[in-house]
Design brief:
This protein is 44% helix and 17% strand. The protein is α/β, with parallel strands linked by helices.
Length: 482
């Protein structure tokens, strides 16, 4: 079986797009690749097709040494959907993450050890578990795919500390052929990804599809207040019939707009992170399966939204970075037809992002204070919960979310063990240097500030906005767009 027949047989596509086949051939030759490809352009096929071919080539291998493609991904919420889709195509795939019961995890561990799967999805945090390390050591990892590879980089917009262990993980796995994939990465982030993989620039080939989407129109409209924004949202919807997404920063703002639409009898969906998981799934399914759906959403409505016919994406608030903005507008017009991407800019909204920035960048003193409470008063913390701890840290300011950030970072660095929701911590370890180094934390805050400043520059840019985005990501503008 070759790549073309695997594409047709298992995925039902007649042809590859862009550089997909070149990437696949490169990986199948045992060479490393860094793939930067716009959202919706089929990054996953760049490792799924090799997984099929490697499995077919190794069918005669003994079970305990049968080749396995291991996919490291931070997207727990999407793993099941991805694996279900692969199984529907007749592929032997599974995932192991914290959403499974202990019994289910143990069953899958056994299946992996027995060579039952050709493709396995895990989070990088899974490599903290001794039982997983024992199981994975019994398999021959032929291909390691690092999805959402920008999470490796502290310069990226979605840093995950466990991703910085990828070089050690690669060594543990026998330094297999590695493919790292992301939709967005500036030149600094690209260099950091390669370094964090434990590779030199000459060891890995960059495949950059660019970010050009000729069918998308980009527009910034200065707006003043809710009523003006609502009027513009409805006008954009009328001018671009079909499904669309309106992104908000805050849930309370989203719900305020939802109430206004209800008063006008405008049908719409609502999606945000505070909804129960089953409700979120139901809303997402309605949006994906409907022909004319309007959804008001926070950025929780993101990965896995691969609906072809999204005619408009509106940002009712200023996003926090060019990276997140580009990813979100990339959900429009995947069918190649004309689609609108509109940012409704109210300068007052910048204050919200500045506050978010403060919440997401606690200083070293705050980390140490949180750690001190956890280390010395863990029984009380577990008994009385987050609100008790929040009051101890910053009194009555319930809108200060530095505590959530601190706990999340401590969890990702392995400082704490147990459950964060509901709060039930079992172990507290030493605070690592990255959370105690104020210079390092200041540099992170400064980078975040620069990302927001780039958004402001984009808003005020009087020339070609696509050229601005290309320049931000270090890419030349395609000649037909100049």
């Amino acid at each position: 079986m070759n790549a073309q027949s695997a594409l047709e047989t298992y995925f039902g596509y007649p042809d590859f797009r862009g550089q997909q086949l070149a990437v696949i051939d490169h990986v199948m030759a045992g060479e490393h690749a860094l793939v930067i490809m716009p959202t919706g352009m089929g990054k996953s096929l760049c490792y799924q097709i090799p997984a099929v071919l490697l499995a077919k080539n190794g069918e005669e291998a003994s079970a305990d040494r049968a080749g396995l493609t291991l996919v490291i991904s931070p997207l727990i919420a999407l793993m099941k959907d991805q694996v279900d889709a692969l199984r529907d195509h007749g592929l032997s795939a599974t995932f192991i993450n914290s959403s499974l019961t202990r019994q289910s995890r143990e069953q899958r561990y056994q299946g992996v050890a027995e060579g039952n799967y050709a493709l396995l999805y895990v989070t990088p945090e899974r490599f903290r578990k001794p039982e997983f390390l024992d199981v994975i050591s019994r398999r021959h990892i032929q291909l390691l795919a690092v999805d959402e590879a920008h999470c490796i980089s502290e310069w990226g917009h979605d840093f995950r500390p466990d991703y910085t262990r990828i070089a050690d993980i690669r060594q543990l796995l026998g330094e297999p052929t590695t493919i790292a994939l992301t939709a967005t990465a500036t030149p600094d982030v690209q260099a950091d990804i390669i370094r964090q993989l434990g590779l030199n620039r000459d060891d890995i080939k960059l495949y950059h599809e660019g970010i050009n989407r000729p069918n998308l129109s980009l527009e910034v409209i200065e707006s003043w207040g809710d009523e003006d924004k609502l009027e513009r949202i409805l006008r954009i919807r009328d001018n671009h019939p079909g499904s669309g997404i309106v992104y908000f920063t805050l849930i309370k703002t989203l719900m305020r707009f939802s109430e206004m639409l209800d008063e006008m009898n405008v049908e719409h969906l609502v999606y945000h992170g505070d909804l129960e998981r089953t409700t979120r799934k139901r809303v997402q399914d309605r949006f994906m399966n409907g022909n004319d759906q309007l959804v008001l959403a926070t950025n929780a409505f993101g990965m896995g939204i691969d609906k072809d016919a999204i005619r408009f994406v509106i940002h009712a608030d200023v996003p926090g970075s060019m990276e997140s903005y580009y990813q979100e507008i990339g959900r429009a017009g995947r069918d190649g037809l004309a689609s609108a991407c509109v940012l409704l800019y109210d300068q007052r909204d910048l204050a919200i992002q500045m506050e978010f920035m403060r919440w997401s960048n606690p200083d070293a003193e705050f980390y140490e204070r949180v750690h001190d409470y956890l280390a010395h008063d863990l029984e009380q913390v577990n008994a009385f919960g987050l609100e008790w701890l929040r009051e101890k840290l910053h009194h009555k300011d319930k809108f200060d979310h530095r505590l959530e950030t601190s706990l999340s970072m401590m969890d990702r660095y392995g400082v704490i063990e147990g459950s964060l929701s509901p709060l039930d911590l079992t172990e507290v370890h030493a605070l690592p240097e990255p959370l105690r180094d104020q210079e390092r934390l200041d540099a992170k805050l400064q980078r975040d500030q620069h990302k927001l400043y780039a958004l402001v520059q984009y808003v005020n840019h009087e020339g070609n906005r696509k050229a601005f985005i290309h320049d931000y990501f270090g890419l030349p503008m395609p000649s037909e767009e100049e």
